[in-house]
Amino acid sequence: MLEFLSVLRIPCHLFEVEQRVRVYAKLDMGTHVHHGTNLSTEQSPDPGSDPGAGALTRAGHTTAAVLLGCILVLGILGNFLVLLVFSRFPGLRTPVNLIVINISISDLLVCLFGTPLSFAASVRGRWLTGPYGCRWYGFCNALFGLVSLVSLSLLSFERYSALLHSPQSESSQYCRARLAVVASWLYSLLWTLPPLLGWSSYGPEGPGTICSVQWQQRTAAARSYISCLFVFCLFLPLLLMFFCYSSILLAVRGVARQVARINRSSAEWTESRVLLMVVVMVTGYLLCWMPYGVVAMLASFGQPGVVPPALTLIPSILAKSSTVLNPFIYVLLNNQFSRCFLYMMKCSSEVPSAPVHPTGSRGVWPPIHPTEELNTEPVTPASTDQQLQPSVQMLADNCET
Questions:
Q1: Which of 57, 217, 266, 398 is the most buried (most CB within 10 A)?
Q2: What is the mean pLDDT of the chain?
Q3: What is the SS3 assignment for the chain?
Q4: Domains of the chain
C-alpha cells in the first residue's frame, strides 16, 4: 500500500517541478526581453549627444532642410550679386556703402561656412561633423552673424552722421567707414571668442541639427555671458538704430513741412518713402534677431523645459534668413544700386546715364540741418520751391546710399 502511494506521489511531484520550471522560464524570458529593449535603446544613434535630439519628426527635419536649402541658395546668390555690382561699378563704393559691402561679405561667409552644415544635418536628422565641427560651426555662425548685426547699427550711425553733422572731407569719411568695418570685426571677436576659452561654450542645441552657444546651461558663467551678449550685441545696437533712424526721419519731416506749402504731394511722397525705409530696416532687424535673443534668455533664465527643443530651431532659421533679407533691404531697394544692377544684367559696359553720385565727391552728400533756416530773405514761391524741394530730395536719397 505504501509503495502504491509513493508511486502516485511521484507524478504529482513531477507536475509541481514542471510548473515551477515554466514560471521560471517565463520570468527569464521577460528579463531577457527587458534587457534587450534597454540595449537597443542605449545603442540608438545619438545626434550630437544633445538631449533634444530626435525631438523633430522626419517631416520636421525635411521642412527645416528645405528652408535652410532655400536660404543657402538665395543667400549665396544675392550677396554674390551685390559684391559683383560693387566690383563692376567702383563709383558705388561710397563711405556708407563700404559698410554695406562688409554686411554682404559677412552674410556670404555665413552661407559658405555655416548654413551647409546645418542643411546637411537636417537632411540626415542628426549632427554629422562631431564635437569639433559643432564648435567650429557655432563660432563661425556667431562671429559672422554678429559682424552683420553690428554693421547694421553702424550703418545707421554713418547715415545719421553724414546727414545731420557738419561736413567732413572725403578722405576723413572713408577713413571713418574703414574704421567702422574693422571695429565690427574686432567687437564681434571680443564676444565670440570667450566660449572657446571657457566663458560658456559652443555645443548642440534644439533638435541636435544646429550648434550654438549653450543657452540651456544654468551655471553662473553661462548666464552672465548670455546676459552680456543680449545687452551689448543685441539691445544696444537696436537702440542705436532707433535713435539714428528716428533722427533722420524727424529731419526729413521738418524740411518736408516747409516744402508742403508749395508742393504737398512731393513732400508727402518723400516723407512716406523715408518712413518706409526706416520701418523696413528696423522691422527686418527685429524679425531676424530678436526671437533668437528672447529664446536664449528664456532657455537660460526661465523654467526648465519652457522652451521645447524643436522650438529653438525657428529663431535659428530666422537669424539665418537675414543673409537673404539684407541684400534686398539694404541694397536692392537702393535706386542707384538697382540702376547699376540692371545695366550689368544687360551686359552693358557703359555707366548708367543718370549720375550715380549726386555730387562730384563720390557720393558725399552735403549735410542738412533741420533746425537751420533754409532761406532767410523773402523769396517768391517759385524760388522757395527751388530751395526746399531739392533739400528734401537729398535727404530721402541719402538714406539709400
A1: 398
A2: 75
A3: CHHHHHHHHHHHHHHHHHHHHHHHHHHHHHHHHHHHHHHHHHCCCCHHHCCCCCCCCHHHHHHHHHHHHHHHHHHHHHHHHHHHHHHHCHHHCCHHHHHHHHHHHHHHHHHHHCHHHHHHHHHHCCCCCHHHHHHHHHHHHHHHHHHHHHHHHHHHHHHHHHHHCCCCCHHHHHHHHHHHHHHHHHHHHHHHCHHHHCCCCEEEECCCCEEEECCCCCCHHHHHHHHHHHHHHHHHHHHHHHHHHHHHHHHHHHHHHHHCCCCHHHHHHHHHHHHHHHHHHHHHHHHHHHHHHHHHHHHHHCCCCCCCHHHHHHHHHHHHHHHHHHHHHHHHCCHHHHHHHHHHHCCCCCCCCCCCCCCCCCCCCCCCCCCCCCCCCCCCHHHHHHHHHHHHHHHHHHCCC
A4: 63-356+388-398 (1.20.1070.10)
Amino acid symbol at 112:
L
30-75: pLDDT as tens digits: 433 333 333 333 333 343 344 444 467 888 899 999 999 999 999 9
In angstroms, the Cα distances linking 3 to 7, 13, 211 are 6, 15, 81
Q: What is the pLDDT of residues 311-353, one digit of tens each?
A: 888 888 999 999 999 888 877 677 788 888 888 888 754 555 5
Burial of 313 (0-12, 13-18, 19+ CB in 10 A): buried
The tens digit of pLDDT for each residue in 113-164 reads 999 999 999 999 889 989 999 999 999 999 999 999 999 999 999 888 887 7
Hunting for cell 544654468 — which residue is that? 218
